[in-house]
Design a protein that fits this description.
Layout (H helix, E strand, L loop, with lengths): L35 E8 L4 H12 L4 E7 L5 E8 L5 H11 L2 E5 L1
Antiparallel strand pairs: 1-3, 1-4, 2-3
Helix pairs in contact: 1-2
The structure holds copper (II) ion.
Length: 107
């Protein structure tokens, strides 16, 4: 199965953690019929590397089509997972845990 990578628009600058990286507006008008969106609140992410780790793991979850992260460095980041249908919540949590972070809740 092919996993579609999402361009987050994060700039990995040379000056350490790109904590102020603006979340990419990956809002290209994809005609996703019956698309689902799950919002996860993830603690502990601090930079673009954290974002890409989480994105990578979540993208590997079956059914996930798009992952977008609104990074809040050192706080609770909002991770939006889009899928064509329902996605196993436990699989999403496991993916975030795999990346090394914890889901503090859903929104
Ligand atoms: Cu980081």
């Amino acid at each position: 199965m092919t996993v579609e990578r999402v361009e987050l628009g994060l700039k990995d600058t040379a000056n350490g953690c790109a904590c102020c990286a603006t979340p990419g507006a990956s809002t290209e008008g994809r005609s996703a019929e019956a698309a689902m969106s799950t919002t996860l609140l993830v603690d502990g992410m601090t930079c673009a590397h954290c974002v890409s780790s989480v994105t990578e793991e979540l993208s590997a979850v079956p059914g996930v089509e798009e992952v977008s992260v609104a990074l809040t460095a050192g706080g609770t980041s909002t991770v939006t997972v889009r899928s064509a249908g329902p996605v196993d919540d436990a699989a999403l949590r496991a993916a975030v845990a795999e990346a090394g972070y914890a889901i503090s809740g859903t929104a």
